[in-house]
Amino acid sequence: MITMREVLQFPELQKAVVHAGKGGLGRKVRWVHVMDTEDVGLFLEGGEFLLTCGQIWPQNKQAEERLLNSFLRNQISGILFATGRYLTGCPAAALEFGEKNSIPVIEVPYNVPFVKITEQIHLEIIDRHYKKMERSARVPIELRDKLQSSPSYSSICEILAGYLNCPVAITDTANQIYVKASPNVGERVNFQKCINTFIQNKQSQQLMNNAKTVYLSDNPLSYIMNVPIKIEGITRGALWLISPGQKVNEEFAYSLDFAADLLVDIVLNKQDLEARGRQLHLELLELLLENPETASIIIEERIQELGIEQQKHWLAGLILVGVNNLTSPLSIGMESIRDECKKWIDETEGLNGFCEIYKEQLVLFLASNLDKASIKQAVHHLQNNVRNTTAHTAPVVVLGEIKQHVLSFKESYQEAKALAPLVIHQSHSGGAYFSEQLKREMFLYGGLSPKKAMEFRNIILPKELLTEHGTTLYETLKCLALNNYNRDKVTKDLHIHLNTLRYRIKRIEQLFEESLTSPRCQFWIQVALDLESLATEYKESDLKNESEGDIAII
């Protein structure tokens, strides 16, 4: 197989510029296809590298969106635009599409011949496939079948070691053993020492550039065979076999060659999966949140395909950008937050899953075998990491309750969504919040629409506080509630004299017709402030849409 990164190394593409989707350069290219119709998506099977000069590129947004969606459904490998005649540059929608879905969007001058590009890539694909089939045919059927069903480096080493009755290992670029396996019976050898001896031998160093090498060590008597593992034209390590006291034959060499092919396939398949991972994440979230009951089998397949381990705890979360909202879900800020979440998930033992932008929100899909306390500790750690790496935002992490089955993920997600508007503005420095700790607030406010929340707040607060003339008194009331009605703290925060504060408190109490020291009064003030964040800041756009809808109905 060949990847987009390798395709760009061909002489015909030396003038190519990758404008978007660089994260998808590891995608596998199955075939090359020249676009000659807007319905090209009907003829795709997946893994195509598409070429176009832009002559038939859609001129309206709806048709363009349909075309790009067809590319996504079929998981193309990349798009190449030859610009200079029909297009002056890559279409903006294609660039956004490529960056969002890790699909490379490439530009070349119009005079670059498509026939040369397709010829070179197709010849390389066919040549590699033929050589791989040729090597496969020389391997014993029993061994070949076992190796082809192996999902990992370690299992390939174990199968080879058992079948050939020889120790087998994989080394990295520094010639250090990464994975090794030994047969159940046989003489034990110091594998690393043998490899080091081989490397130090001048003749061996010359042989290492060949497809396979054999070296005889006299003390103890052993034969060493080496096959370099080349990924995208770069040697990333080697597959080794040591045969103590037994001379190796052609079967050993063919088996090692074939196993090296499979090791490369594992790496490239992983690269391809990572590039396609965002779309798989979105598909899984859509299945879980839209129709989990009828899609349970597909959901399990998606989870397995993404390599997410089955755990006893499943929970959903949202990462909100706090008081400094980012303008776009594709902004650098949200991308960096998502990258930080991936790093956190990878590094947290007992936790796996992903973070993805779903319906313009950063959604956490988490599977864990940790207890509640450990999960909360890990989430606080995530919030601190995100805050430290994204200085322009005050992140708020909210999590729904822990569920015992993945099909209950939707319930956890809905709890996180209900919690989000209640806490997003509680702290200017962000924070981590858990629905199980705020059940009362969720019960009180969780079912309120922004419009109803605004109406409820306006009933609680005196009208005078909500006018322009009442702004100073209202801000003072907020500061009092935030500081638990501690007057000394309020005077420092507002930079006012104590007598000024006393005057303002007197005016506020007159408007409420009740003392601010009253627990009942303080309760309703807190309710009104909670409703304010729900109604005006977090859901301002929704409120606007609702108002427009009311007008349209009238």
From TrEMBL:
The source's domain of life comes to: Bacteria
Purine catabolism PurC-like domain location = 6-125
* Residue ranges occupied by any PucR C-terminal helix-turn-helix domain in the UniProt entry: 473-530
Q: Which InterPro entries match?
A: CdaR-like_regulators (IPR051448), PucR_C-HTH_dom (IPR025736), PucR_C-HTH_sf (IPR042070), PucR_dom (IPR012914)
| Pfam families associated with the record | HTH_30, PucR
**Gene3D superfamilies in alphabetical order:** PucR C-terminal helix-turn-helix domain
Q: What is this protein called?
A: PucR family transcriptional regulator ligand-binding domain-containing protein
Lineage of the native species?
Bacteria, Bacillati, Bacillota, Bacilli, Bacillales
